[in-house]
Design brief:
A 5-stranded mixed sheet has the order 2-4-5-7-6, covered by helices on one side. It has a two-stranded antiparallel ribbon with strand order 1-3. A hairpin with a 2-residue loop joins β6 and β7. The protein contains 5 helices and 7 strands, in the order ααβαββαββαββ. α1 packs antiparallel against α2 and α2 runs antiparallel to α4. It has one domain: Histidine kinase-like ATPase, C-terminal domain (Heat Shock Protein 90, 2-Layer Sandwich), CATH 3.30.565. About 30% of the residues are buried. The C terminus is likely disordered. It is α+β, with helices and mostly antiparallel strands.
Amino acid sequence: MIDRDAQSNASQVTEANHRIANHLALLACHVRLKGAELVRRDPPPKLADLSLLLDAIGAQITAISQLHRLLSSEGTESSADLSHHLGMICSALGSGVSGDVVIVESLASDCTIAPQHLLPTAQIVTEVMTNAIKYGRRPGRSGRIVVCCSKDASGTVLVEILDNGPGLPANGLGSGFGYRLVQALVGQIDGAIEYRSTNQGLTVCLSLPLEETKADTEIPTPVGAGAETPKLHVFV
Protein backbone atom coordinates (compact mmCIF):
# COMPACT_ATOMS: atom_id res chain seq x y z
CA MET A 1 0.00 0.00 0.00
CA ILE A 2 2.80 2.40 0.90
CA ASP A 3 4.64 1.63 -2.34
CA ARG A 4 1.45 2.14 -4.32
CA ASP A 5 0.80 5.50 -2.62
CA ALA A 6 4.39 6.54 -3.23
CA GLN A 7 4.11 5.66 -6.92
CA SER A 8 0.85 7.60 -7.18
CA ASN A 9 2.40 10.67 -5.54
CA ALA A 10 5.46 10.45 -7.75
CA SER A 11 3.27 10.20 -10.86
CA GLN A 12 1.24 13.21 -9.69
CA VAL A 13 4.36 15.32 -9.20
CA THR A 14 5.75 14.23 -12.58
CA GLU A 15 2.52 15.23 -14.31
CA ALA A 16 2.50 18.57 -12.48
CA ASN A 17 6.10 19.21 -13.57
CA HIS A 18 5.15 18.40 -17.17
CA ARG A 19 2.25 20.83 -17.17
CA ILE A 20 4.23 23.61 -15.53
CA ALA A 21 7.08 23.17 -18.03
CA ASN A 22 4.55 23.65 -20.82
CA HIS A 23 3.10 26.73 -19.13
CA LEU A 24 6.60 28.20 -18.83
CA ALA A 25 7.18 27.54 -22.53
CA LEU A 26 3.97 29.42 -23.32
CA LEU A 27 5.01 32.32 -21.08
CA ALA A 28 8.45 32.42 -22.71
CA CYS A 29 6.74 32.67 -26.11
CA HIS A 30 4.56 35.50 -24.77
CA VAL A 31 7.64 37.39 -23.52
CA ARG A 32 9.44 36.99 -26.86
CA LEU A 33 6.39 38.30 -28.72
CA LYS A 34 6.09 41.30 -26.42
CA GLY A 35 9.82 41.99 -26.72
CA ALA A 36 9.68 41.91 -30.51
CA GLU A 37 6.69 44.27 -30.47
CA LEU A 38 8.53 46.74 -28.22
CA VAL A 39 11.60 46.71 -30.48
CA ARG A 40 9.45 47.57 -33.51
CA ARG A 41 7.52 50.33 -31.73
CA ASP A 42 7.97 53.85 -33.06
CA PRO A 43 8.43 56.00 -31.03
CA PRO A 44 10.35 53.77 -28.60
CA PRO A 45 8.51 52.66 -25.45
CA LYS A 46 8.66 54.82 -22.36
CA LEU A 47 10.26 53.66 -19.12
CA ALA A 48 6.80 53.43 -17.51
CA ASP A 49 5.68 51.03 -20.27
CA LEU A 50 8.67 48.76 -19.67
CA SER A 51 8.09 48.82 -15.91
CA LEU A 52 4.43 47.87 -16.45
CA LEU A 53 5.44 44.97 -18.68
CA LEU A 54 7.90 43.64 -16.10
CA ASP A 55 5.26 43.85 -13.36
CA ALA A 56 2.84 41.91 -15.58
CA ILE A 57 5.40 39.18 -16.32
CA GLY A 58 6.25 38.92 -12.62
CA ALA A 59 2.56 38.41 -11.76
CA GLN A 60 2.28 35.61 -14.32
CA ILE A 61 5.41 33.86 -13.01
CA THR A 62 3.92 33.99 -9.52
CA ALA A 63 0.68 32.50 -10.87
CA ILE A 64 2.61 29.62 -12.43
CA SER A 65 4.48 28.91 -9.19
CA GLN A 66 1.23 28.76 -7.22
CA LEU A 67 -0.35 26.56 -9.89
CA HIS A 68 2.61 24.18 -9.56
CA ARG A 69 1.96 23.87 -5.82
CA LEU A 70 -1.72 23.18 -6.50
CA LEU A 71 -1.07 20.48 -9.10
CA SER A 72 1.64 18.83 -7.01
CA SER A 73 -0.53 18.60 -3.90
CA GLU A 74 -4.03 18.07 -5.32
CA GLY A 75 -3.44 16.57 -8.77
CA THR A 76 -4.25 17.59 -12.31
CA GLU A 77 -8.00 17.18 -11.85
CA SER A 78 -8.11 20.05 -9.36
CA SER A 79 -9.57 23.49 -10.15
CA ALA A 80 -7.67 26.78 -10.13
CA ASP A 81 -8.97 29.73 -8.10
CA LEU A 82 -9.13 32.44 -10.76
CA SER A 83 -10.18 35.21 -8.35
CA HIS A 84 -7.05 34.66 -6.26
CA HIS A 85 -4.81 34.99 -9.30
CA LEU A 86 -6.66 38.02 -10.64
CA GLY A 87 -6.13 39.65 -7.25
CA MET A 88 -2.39 39.06 -7.59
CA ILE A 89 -2.40 40.61 -11.07
CA CYS A 90 -4.27 43.66 -9.79
CA SER A 91 -1.79 44.07 -6.93
CA ALA A 92 1.22 43.68 -9.22
CA LEU A 93 -0.01 46.16 -11.81
CA GLY A 94 -1.37 48.54 -9.19
CA SER A 95 1.99 48.73 -7.42
CA GLY A 96 3.64 50.08 -10.55
CA VAL A 97 1.16 52.78 -11.60
CA SER A 98 1.06 56.37 -10.48
CA GLY A 99 -1.49 57.68 -8.00
CA ASP A 100 -3.81 58.91 -10.74
CA VAL A 101 -4.92 55.37 -11.59
CA VAL A 102 -7.05 53.37 -9.15
CA ILE A 103 -7.65 49.62 -9.56
CA VAL A 104 -10.79 48.26 -7.89
CA GLU A 105 -11.39 44.52 -7.40
CA SER A 106 -14.77 42.76 -7.28
CA LEU A 107 -13.86 39.07 -7.28
CA ALA A 108 -16.34 36.36 -6.29
CA SER A 109 -15.08 33.36 -4.33
CA ASP A 110 -16.52 30.69 -6.65
CA CYS A 111 -14.62 31.56 -9.86
CA THR A 112 -12.76 28.29 -10.43
CA ILE A 113 -11.46 27.19 -13.82
CA ALA A 114 -9.50 24.32 -15.36
CA PRO A 115 -5.77 24.60 -14.54
CA GLN A 116 -4.72 24.71 -18.20
CA HIS A 117 -6.88 27.81 -18.71
CA LEU A 118 -5.28 29.81 -15.91
CA LEU A 119 -2.19 31.19 -17.64
CA PRO A 120 -3.91 32.17 -20.94
CA THR A 121 -6.70 33.84 -18.94
CA ALA A 122 -4.14 35.69 -16.80
CA GLN A 123 -2.37 36.86 -19.96
CA ILE A 124 -5.63 38.12 -21.48
CA VAL A 125 -6.56 40.05 -18.34
CA THR A 126 -3.03 41.45 -18.01
CA GLU A 127 -3.04 42.65 -21.62
CA VAL A 128 -6.45 44.31 -21.27
CA MET A 129 -5.53 45.94 -17.94
CA THR A 130 -2.21 47.18 -19.31
CA ASN A 131 -4.02 48.76 -22.23
CA ALA A 132 -6.52 50.38 -19.84
CA ILE A 133 -3.72 51.79 -17.67
CA LYS A 134 -2.00 53.28 -20.72
CA TYR A 135 -5.00 54.55 -22.69
CA GLY A 136 -8.11 54.35 -20.49
CA ARG A 137 -7.86 57.84 -19.04
CA ARG A 138 -9.28 61.18 -20.03
CA PRO A 139 -7.03 64.26 -19.90
CA GLY A 140 -7.23 65.88 -16.50
CA ARG A 141 -9.12 62.97 -14.87
CA SER A 142 -7.97 60.17 -12.64
CA GLY A 143 -8.17 56.71 -14.15
CA ARG A 144 -10.38 54.02 -12.61
CA ILE A 145 -10.16 50.36 -13.59
CA VAL A 146 -12.61 47.84 -12.15
CA VAL A 147 -11.84 44.12 -12.41
CA CYS A 148 -14.77 41.77 -11.78
CA CYS A 149 -15.02 37.99 -11.68
CA SER A 150 -18.31 36.17 -11.22
CA LYS A 151 -20.25 33.07 -12.23
CA ASP A 152 -23.60 33.26 -14.01
CA ALA A 153 -26.61 30.95 -13.62
CA SER A 154 -25.24 28.47 -16.17
CA GLY A 155 -21.94 28.17 -14.32
CA THR A 156 -19.96 30.19 -16.85
CA VAL A 157 -17.15 32.23 -15.31
CA LEU A 158 -17.25 35.85 -16.46
CA VAL A 159 -14.38 38.33 -16.17
CA GLU A 160 -15.01 42.02 -16.79
CA ILE A 161 -12.49 44.87 -16.97
CA LEU A 162 -14.04 48.34 -16.98
CA ASP A 163 -12.31 51.71 -17.33
CA ASN A 164 -13.57 55.29 -17.29
CA GLY A 165 -11.61 56.44 -20.31
CA PRO A 166 -12.69 57.75 -23.71
CA GLY A 167 -13.69 54.34 -25.07
CA LEU A 168 -12.61 52.93 -28.39
CA PRO A 169 -11.35 55.28 -31.12
CA ALA A 170 -13.58 56.10 -34.07
CA ASN A 171 -11.93 53.39 -36.19
CA GLY A 172 -12.78 50.70 -33.62
CA LEU A 173 -10.46 48.04 -32.26
CA GLY A 174 -8.03 48.09 -35.15
CA SER A 175 -5.52 45.28 -35.67
CA GLY A 176 -2.71 46.09 -33.25
CA PHE A 177 -0.47 43.50 -31.66
CA GLY A 178 -2.25 43.55 -28.30
CA TYR A 179 -5.67 42.97 -29.87
CA ARG A 180 -4.38 40.11 -32.04
CA LEU A 181 -2.65 38.51 -29.06
CA VAL A 182 -5.83 38.63 -26.96
CA GLN A 183 -7.91 37.16 -29.80
CA ALA A 184 -5.43 34.32 -30.25
CA LEU A 185 -5.46 33.49 -26.53
CA VAL A 186 -9.27 33.61 -26.34
CA GLY A 187 -9.49 31.23 -29.28
CA GLN A 188 -7.04 28.79 -27.71
CA ILE A 189 -9.19 28.34 -24.60
CA ASP A 190 -12.49 28.31 -26.55
CA GLY A 191 -13.64 31.42 -24.72
CA ALA A 192 -15.51 34.48 -25.95
CA ILE A 193 -14.70 38.16 -25.58
CA GLU A 194 -16.86 41.24 -26.06
CA TYR A 195 -15.90 44.93 -26.19
CA ARG A 196 -18.52 47.48 -25.11
CA SER A 197 -17.53 51.08 -25.72
CA THR A 198 -19.56 54.09 -24.55
CA ASN A 199 -18.86 57.70 -23.67
CA GLN A 200 -18.39 56.47 -20.07
CA GLY A 201 -15.48 54.18 -20.96
CA LEU A 202 -14.69 50.71 -22.24
CA THR A 203 -15.86 47.38 -20.80
CA VAL A 204 -14.18 44.14 -21.88
CA CYS A 205 -16.12 40.98 -20.97
CA LEU A 206 -14.42 37.58 -21.14
CA SER A 207 -16.52 34.38 -20.93
CA LEU A 208 -14.64 31.21 -20.06
CA PRO A 209 -15.72 27.74 -21.24
CA LEU A 210 -17.80 25.52 -19.00
CA GLU A 211 -15.92 22.34 -19.83
CA GLU A 212 -12.26 21.59 -20.29
CA THR A 213 -11.22 21.80 -23.92
CA LYS A 214 -8.85 19.51 -25.71
CA ALA A 215 -5.38 20.97 -25.28
CA ASP A 216 -2.92 21.53 -28.09
CA THR A 217 0.47 19.89 -27.67
CA GLU A 218 2.36 21.87 -30.31
CA ILE A 219 5.26 23.94 -28.99
CA PRO A 220 4.59 27.69 -29.44
CA THR A 221 6.83 29.66 -31.77
CA PRO A 222 7.44 33.40 -31.95
CA VAL A 223 5.62 35.32 -34.65
CA GLY A 224 7.39 37.44 -37.22
CA ALA A 225 6.62 41.09 -37.84
CA GLY A 226 4.42 40.32 -40.83
CA ALA A 227 2.25 37.65 -39.18
CA GLU A 228 -1.47 38.36 -39.02
CA THR A 229 -2.26 36.50 -35.80
CA PRO A 230 0.08 35.37 -33.01
CA LYS A 231 0.16 31.58 -32.84
CA LEU A 232 -0.07 30.54 -29.21
CA HIS A 233 -0.90 27.08 -27.93
CA VAL A 234 -2.49 25.97 -24.68
CA PHE A 235 -0.97 22.90 -23.04
CA VAL A 236 -2.11 20.29 -20.57
